[in-house]
């Protein structure tokens, strides 16, 4: 039996994933968490084979969690299930230690297949991610400016380009407005931009957010 922990801040999404996985005869969901703090508490008292982890969590993001688990040498295998398209976070997640990356909007059966693959210690990547990996190997010199951003800087860029105010971002990420302003300033500097409108245009052009 594959023992799974879920970590997603949306209860309805957790329920949907839990129901999908619970229908599989060889998978058991043994716990759920809505943020990093709850996840840490769960993991101290529960051994699991696979952690199904969202990227967009309050406070520490899923990428932060991946870095922490990697630094601690935690052997749990992580499958990232995110609303973000593969070209935004998949490579970052895999580099941070994830065993796979699946989009929430895809076929639910894919999540079941991915959990089984990851539980065996194998990487799970979609054809789209495989293509991105090949391209990154064959054209290592080509790198978009936003790929040089830190995980939190990229997250700030995407949220600003999605129309969120700095105060909203600060509340969602459990950071101070001043800290979010620092991330914004770094994004502007690294991308050679001057204001939020230019950030939004950049994000749309590079497929980081959809056009509104």
UniProtKB/TrEMBL annotation:
Highest taxon above the source species: Bacteria
Coiled-coil regions, chain positions: none
Gene Ontology MF terms in the entry: DNA binding
Modified-residue entries (4-aspartylphosphate), positions: 54
GO biological process assignments: phosphorelay signal transduction system; regulation of DNA-templated transcription
Positions of the HTH luxR-type domain: 142-207
Pfam families, per the entry: GerE (PF00196), Response_reg (PF00072)
Domain Response regulatory residue range list: 3-119
InterPro entries with a match to the protein in the record: CheY-like_superfamily, NreC/VraR/RcsB-like_REC, Sig_transdc_resp-reg_C-effctor, Sig_transdc_resp-reg_receiver, Tscrpt_reg_LuxR_C, WalR-like
Keyword terms of this UniProt record: DNA-binding, Phosphoprotein, Transcription, Transcription regulation
Name of the protein described by the UniProt record: Regulatory protein, LuxR:response regulator receiver
Species, as recorded: Piscinibacter sakaiensis
């Amino acid at each position: 039996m594959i023992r799974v922990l879920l970590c997603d801040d949306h209860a309805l999404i957790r329920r949907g994933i839990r129901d999908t996985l619970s229908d599989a005869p060889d998978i058991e969901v043994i716990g759920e968490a809505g943020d990093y703090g709850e996840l840490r508490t769960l993991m101290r008292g529960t051994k699991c084979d696979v952690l199904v982890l969202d990227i967009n969590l309050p406070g520490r993001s899923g990428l932060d969690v991946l870095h922490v688990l990697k630094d601690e040498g935690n052997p749990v295998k992580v499958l990232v299930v995110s609303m973000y398209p593969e070209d935004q976070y998949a490579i970052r997640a895999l580099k941070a230690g994830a065993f796979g990356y699946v989009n929430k909007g895809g076929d639910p059966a894919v999540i079941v297949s991915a959990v089984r693959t990851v539980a065996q210690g194998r990487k799970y990547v979609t054809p789209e991610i495989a293509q991105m990996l090949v391209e990154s190997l064959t054209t290592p010199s080509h790198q978009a400016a936003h790929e040089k951003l830190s995980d939190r800087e990229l997250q700030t860029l995407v949220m600003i380009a999605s129309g969120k105010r700095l105060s909203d971002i600060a509340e969602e990420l459990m950071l101070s407005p001043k800290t979010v302003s620092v991330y914004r300033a770094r994004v502007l500097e690294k991308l050679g931009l001057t204001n939020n409108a230019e950030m939004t245009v950049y994000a749309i052009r590079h497929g980081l957010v959809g056009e509104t």
